[in-house]
Amino acid sequence: MNKTPSSVDVAKAAGVSQSMVSRAFTPGSSINPDKRALIIAKAKELGYRPNIMARSMITKKSKIIGFVFGYLENQYYPLALEKMSREFQAKGYHSLMFFSDNQSSADDIVQEFLQYQIDAVVLASVSLSSDWIDACNSLSVPVVLFNRAIKTDDVTSVTSANYEGGKTVARYLVETGHKRISYISGFVESSTNKDRERGLNDGLEDHGMTLFSVESGNYDQEQARKATLDMFSSDKAETPDALFVASDHMAFSVLETLRYELGLRVPEDVSVIGYDNVPLGAAPSYNLTTMSQPVDDMVSHTVNAVMSRIAQPSLKPERIEIPSHLIQRKTVKNRLLS
User: Fold this and answer.
1) 26-78 per-position pLDDT tens digit
2) pLDDT at position 190, please?
3) CATH class of segment(s) 60-160+295-322
4) Domain spans of the chain?
5) Distance CA 307, CA 298 (A)
6) Looking at the DSSP assignment, which residues form a beta bridge with residue 272?
7) Long-range contacts of the stretch 23-27 (C-beta < 8 A, 24+)
8) Which CATH number fits domain 7-50: 1.10.260.40, 3.20.20.70, 3.40.1190.20, 1.10.600.10?
């Protein structure tokens, strides 16, 4: 029976050390490109394939990052997931995906995938109890929250500057002459929603105004539709002249409801502004004015935070906030000019 070729065999054939063979098959490792090409060629001749599982038993590292996402309906998350997976892949890591109810804790799922000896956990739009954060820390498994923060100093989080984003929306709508500014919220208890709403309220207060009305959309298109219908019901003496919607995903539904169910013109009758700046928002049918949540910056900071904590588990957790920017398109009217 022919013996399965090993890394030692490849090293002998290529005239290099066994550790160099290992580096040749590790993305992102430091090795001369010519040496890597030679080793790969010799490995192919011998029929050698690296045994990742065996290597993980030796190094005590699985090279697997566990992802828990609440949902992917919002276009922002598939985009972020693809970019994040590619960045980790370039560093030699693989992704293990789980999905959770986006309004509940990720505890059960984290308990399950810790059995895979993952090297780190990234949670997106889900929460984790302090008990499980403690458990992950005790196992030296870093936890990083993406687009969500929690009230604890025990975990690193990466978000956009949601509070400042809310204030920017308030200032922009006031400066363009709007008087009845309403809010369609995301998950009421989520940090992103709380910060955006708090920023909106404080921004309006800075201009001597208060929020006209608020309805919950729960980051869901159908609930955002119902919230819009409630705000513009026929029994209302006054209705909003501007809507700040906590995500572009909901804002698309809001725009369609205003235009096609209520027969209102956007922005002539009511202005709409979203949050995220997903690519679809720039399409001519929407042309949505929105707050940009820079996905490239947020992904890069998340990957860097994970990698730093894998290398140095004792690093202190931090809250990383990425500035957001107003993207002006066609769904907000300057009422001072009319």
Assistant:
1) 656 678 888 888 888 888 788 776 655 455 444 456 788 988 887 778 889 99
2) 87
3) alpha beta
4) 7-50, 60-160+295-322, 162-294+326-337
5) 14
6) 243
7) 25/50, 26/92, 27/89, 27/90, 27/91, 27/92
8) 1.10.260.40
60 or 90: which leads in pLDDT: 90
105, 129 Cβ separation under 8 angstroms:
yes
On the question of a cis peptide bond just before residue 294, with omega within 30 degrees of 0, the verdict is: no
Question: Which is the CATH superfamily of the domain at 162-294+326-337?
Answer: Response regulator (3.40.50.2300)
Indicate the pLDDT class of residue 1, thresholds 50, 70 and 90.
Answer: very low
Which residue stretches of the chain are H helix?
Answer: 7-14, 18-24, 33-46, 52-59, 76-90, 107-113, 130-138, 162-175, 191-206, 221-231, 248-256, 295-311
Please state, rounded to an integer, the average pLDDT across all residues of the chain.
87
Region of 204 on the Ramachandran plot (φ > 0 left; ψ -120 to 50 alpha; else beta):
alpha
Amino acid at site 225:
R
Q: Which residues contact 37 (CB under 8 A, 6 or more apart)?
A: none
Query: Residue 76's CB: how many other CB atoms inside 10 A?
Result: 23
Q: How far is CA 132 from CA 61, 108, 127, 128, 203, in A?
A: 20, 9, 10, 7, 36
Among 107-116, 128-137, 319-328, top mean pLDDT goes to 319-328
Nearest alpha-carbon partner for 107 in 81, 126, 86, 85: 126
